[in-house]
Amino acid sequence: MAKSRKDYFGLGKLISIILAIIPVTAWILGALTRFKEGKLVAGIIRIIGLGVILWVIDLVLMIKDGKILRLLNM
User: The pTM is what?
Assistant: First the structure.
C-alpha cells in the first residue's frame, strides 16, 4: 500500500489542522515544508510575503485535503 504524503511532516490530519489554525505556526511550517521539498523560492515567498492570503488558503486546503497550496514549483 502506497504511503500517503501529507504536509506538516507527516503529522495526522487533526494535528495538522490545529497547527494550521495558528497563523505564525502555519507560516513557519509551510515554509519548512517547501524548503524540505527543495523549493527554495516558494519557501522564501511563504516567509516574507503573502502570509495572510496563503494562511487562509492553506487552512481551507488542510481541512479539505490535508495538504498546503503549491503555487510555485521553484
Answer: 0.73
